[in-house]
Design brief:
This protein is α/β, with parallel strands linked by helices. It contains ten helices and eleven strands. The strands form two sheets. The protein has a seven-stranded mixed β-sheet, with helices on both faces. Strand 2 and strand 3 form a beta hairpin. The longest helix is centred in the middle third of the chain and has 18 residues. The relative contact order is 0.16. It binds adenosine-5'-triphosphate (ATP) and magnesium ion. Magnesium ion binds next to helix 1.
Length: 293
């Protein structure tokens, strides 16, 4: 078994490829047999119960943790990361926090402030907020600053750890539109952790469902309609469908679906969720979740 973070072969399509990835903290086995691929232009959501290893997996994908077993191969030329906690520098204003990566990339002061300000305003921050320090911002403002800090770099691969969890429902909708527009414009690959199944159904091309102890991917769903053309009815319907799936219920520790609820009528045949059963039995699986309808 190969170990480490490898550069991908030249000439191949940009992708993040994770193969047979295991991870342990001391004697705690946190991830087992993680295997998936994310290509340029794809949005993949990672869902699973608290503590199942989602953040650990994202940190491994970003190269923030050393790979112990298996392989992480990232051929995107630039990667930006948004942490679960905003992690803003307390001695810098909101504007300077957003512009931080541009400064590191040697973009001049005026240019980086212009780009940071423009994006911050699109994310719903006000001019007056940009001169504030992190402790003067609300939790939702801090997470928008953190999202702006990642987006302003226009990365080819964007890794997001619960980017919208601190935001109200109106702002979420606004930021969903912005993220999708930016993603379509730039063809970014996005790997996004979320606890919100509706958010996953609204935004992603594929949903990876993780189960805990050890963290492993038990199912992959592919969504058969471009995110930009999904309306509320489609999203509600397919979120309900996802929630009735045995693997999802098992993974989140929910009781089996009652038959009346389980019969979710199809919105439009062929354009909904497609369950992709893992090609091979999931390594390290110990009872618990399995794919199934
Ligand atoms: N640096 C660390 N040292 C030791 N254990 C860790 C460390 N980071 C995470 N863990 C453990 O690994 C497990 C997975 O944590 P992780 O943060 O990846 O979960 P998560 O799925 O992101 O949870 P949540 O949804 O609550 O954010 C947990 O048991 C956690 O205690
Ligand atoms: Mg986490």
């Amino acid at each position: 078994m190969s170990i480490g973070t490898l550069p991908a072969a030249a000439g191949t399509q940009h992708e993040l490829r994770i193969r047979a990835l295991d991870h342990a903290f001391g004697r705690d086995e946190v991830l087992a047999g993680i295997d998936f691929r994310l290509r340029a232009g794809e949005v993949v959501a990672l869902v699973g119960p608290s503590g199942c290893g989602k953040t650990t997996l994202l940190h491994l994908a970003a190269g923030l943790l050393t790979v112990q077993a298996g392989e992480v191969s990232n051929s995107f030329s630039s990667t930006a990361f948004m942490f679960q906690q905003p992690r803003l520098l307390p001695w810098k204003t909101a504007l300077d926090n957003i512009a931080l990566g541009l400064k590191a990339a040697c973009v001049g002061r005026d240019e980086r402030h212009f780009r940071a300000r423009e994006l911050a305003l699109r994310l719903g921050l006000a001019h007056r907020d940009l001169d504030k320090f992190p402790h003067q911002l609300s939790g939702g403002m801090q997470s928008r600053v953190a999202l702006a800090r990642a987006l302003v770099l226009a990365p080819e691969l964007l890794l997001l750890d619960e980017p919208f969890s601190a935001l109200d429902v109106g702002l979420k909708e606004e930021l969903y539109r912005l993220l999708l527009a930016q993603q379509a414009e730039q063809g970014m690959g996005v790997l996004m952790i979320t606890h919100d199944l509706m958010e996953a159904v609204r935004l992603s091309d594929a949903i990876l469902v993780m189960a805990p102890a050890p963290g492993r991917i038990v199912c992959r769903f592919e969504l058969g309609q471009p995110a930009a053309s999904r309306d509320d009815a489609w999203v509600y319907h397919h979120t309900a469908e996802l929630l009735q799936t045995a693997a999802v219920r098992d993974s989140f520790g929910l009781p089996p679906a009652v038959p009346a609820l389980a019969a979710v009528p199809a919105v439009r045949p062929g354009a909904g969720l497609r369950l992709v059963v893992p090609a091979e039995p999931v390594l390290g699986a110990r009872g618990g979740a399995r794919c199934g309808g």
